[in-house]
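User: Reviewer 2 asked us to show a designed sequence for the structure in our supplementary figure. I'm pasting the structure tokens here. Could you produce the per-position amino acids so we can include them in the response letter?
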């Protein structure tokens, strides 16, 4: 059997669907950032993959406002975020298209980064949880029809956003509830925008 025939038999494209390039790229970049941070003993997160207040003269402060969504503290943090992201990302990417999905990720990263800078003077934030909350609320808001609020949206808002508000008020656990709330509000806004546009 020649090499070409062998490759055609074992070619992963025959049995693996690669139809969500933005989702896969984001997950791959997040994994790469995690590995680079591990190799650099935390230096990569400090330099690029977390957002925190620094001098305006710090060149890396500007990319950090976007790149913090790729950074994770450890593998458990990465796995928790990617488990939901890899489920919801392909659905959103298929429904809204790759360009819109990229734009939503960039806007959510910017909003969560800027708001963290405004209200958190002494802490750093990192991780894709703001993006995940954007996807959760966007998925729920996508069911809005005939000027009626879908019950799924109400339940998701109560369960997820209510938990984050309660967590921010009653617990100091090192989790950035602000990023979750801002990400969720971004998802709700995107969902409403696209529903109105469709109507």
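Assistant: Here is a per-position design you can include in the supplement:
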């Amino acid at each position: 059997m020649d090499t070409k025939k062998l490759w055609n038999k074992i070619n992963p494209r025959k049995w693996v669907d690669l139809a969500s390039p933005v989702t896969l790229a984001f997950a791959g970049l997040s994994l790469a950032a995690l590995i680079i941070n591990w190799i650099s003993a935390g230096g990569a997160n400090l330099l690029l993959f977390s957002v925190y207040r620094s001098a305006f003269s710090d060149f890396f402060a500007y990319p950090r406002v976007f790149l913090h969504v790729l950074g994770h503290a450890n593998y458990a943090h990465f796995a928790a975020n990617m488990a939901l992201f890899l489920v919801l990302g392909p659905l959103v990417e298929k429904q809204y298209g790759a360009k819109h999905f990229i734009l939503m990720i960039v806007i959510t990263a910017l909003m969560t980064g800027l708001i963290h800078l405004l209200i958190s003077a002494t802490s750093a934030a990192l991780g894709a949880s703001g993006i995940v909350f954007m996807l959760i609320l966007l998925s729920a808001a996508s069911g809005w029809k005939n000027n009626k609020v879908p019950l799924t949206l109400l339940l998701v808002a109560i369960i997820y956003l209510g938990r984050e508000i309660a967590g921010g008020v009653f617990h100091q656990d090192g989790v950035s509830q602000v990023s979750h709330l801002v990400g969720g509000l971004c998802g709700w806004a995107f969902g409403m925008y696209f529903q109105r546009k469709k109507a």
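For the response letter, you might also mention the following. The longest helix spans residues 75-96. The chain has one domain: 17-198.
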